[in-house]
Amino acid sequence: MPALALVAPTATLATPPPTATFNLTLSKAIEGEAPSFLPIDIQFAYNWDWTKGEGYATVLSLGSNNTVNQQMFPMGIKDKLSFMARQRFDVTIQGQNGTEDVYAYRVLLNMDKATTDNKEAAVMVGTEGDVIITTENWGATGL
Question: Do residues 141 and 112 lie in contact, with contact meaning Cβ atoms separated by under 8 Å?
Answer without folding.
Answer: yes
